[in-house]
Specification:
By secondary structure, the protein is α+β, with helices and mostly antiparallel strands. The chain is built from six helices and five strands, in the order βαββββααααα. The protein has a five-stranded mixed β-sheet, covered by helices on one side. Glutathione binds next to loops.
Length: 239
């Protein structure tokens, strides 16, 4: 399998899911502006829509759409518990994936535009705030999106809330979400303790990005050096 990705983008959720599931996979970085892959191929031949993530299967078939890719990955490794195998719980988890994709991810996407004005930003923040209010309620009793069980939707939420610092959205108003984000971060550290073959071999995070790192500041360990020196979990933000 090969995951097409861009550093720091939503593909990070699929990437971590692959690692959590312990599956064998390759990565190929995509230049989203040029729509060219790291090996020089036209990315539109992989995904005609030109966005990541895309997961190319060993038979050449290509899956697109992050929530579908995450479900596929989870189902390849049922023992990983990344998605409930059956019953209503499964549909709740899928519901959370869709909520994050459509109500959070796609709502905040326009905020990345350097051309956005304060006037355009205000209604987006208002809409996002209403969604975060609801999510705050969900987390007020603790646990994960699904209660006591971690699932792929928590990974996706971790990635999306990880963008908020760069977007100048403080989570202070939503302390439970902020805590959940931090907890997700800690869980990822635990994920990194997995057997060697499942650990990131490279800091693909390009620590040159560290100054704009949303929450954790510059990578102190590799201080901008190239892989494989940096194994710090915060660099996962940039995978
Ligand atoms: N519907 C897609 C959207 C994915 C998406 O928004 N990807 C962004 C990065 S987070 C992207 O590749 N943007 C570049 C573009 O749209 O050209 C999904 O859920 O996978």
């Amino acid at each position: 399998m090969k995951l097409y990705y861009a550093p720091g983008a939503c593909s990070l959720a699929s990437h971590i899911a692959l690692r959590e599931a312990g599956l064998d996979f390759q990565l190929e970085k995509v230049d989203l502006r040029k729509k060219v892959t790291a090996s020089g191929d036209d990315y539109r031949q992989i995904n005609p829509l030109g966005y990541i993530p895309a997961l190319q299967l060993d038979n050449g078939d290509v899956l697109t759409e992050g929530p579908a890719i995450m479900q596929f990955i989870a189902d390849q490794a049922p023992a990983s518990g990344l998605l409930p195998a059956q019953g209503v719980a499964r549909y709740h988890a899928i519901g959370w994936l869709n909520f994050i994709a459509t109500e959070l991810h796609k709502t905040c996407s326009p905020l990345f535009s350097p051309a956005i004005t304060e006037e355009q930003r205000a209604p987006i923040i208002e809409r996002l705030s209403a969604r975060l209010d609801a999510l705050e309620q969900r987390f007020s009793t603790g646990g994960y999106l699904m209660g006591s069980d971690f699932c792929v939707a928590d990974l996706y939420l971790f990635v999306v809330t990880g963008w908020f610092g760069r977007l100048n959205i403080s989570l202070k108003k939503w302390p439970h979400i902020e805590r959940a984000d931090h907890r997700g971060f800690l869980d990822l550290r635990v994920a990194l303790q997995k057997p060697a073959q499942h650990r990131p071999q490279l800091c693909l995070g390009s620590c040159a990005n560290a100054p704009i790192h949303p929450r954790n500041g510059p990578c102190r360990q590799c201080a901008g050096q190239r892989p494989p020196q940096c194994r710090l979990a915060q660099c996962l933000r940039w995978l």
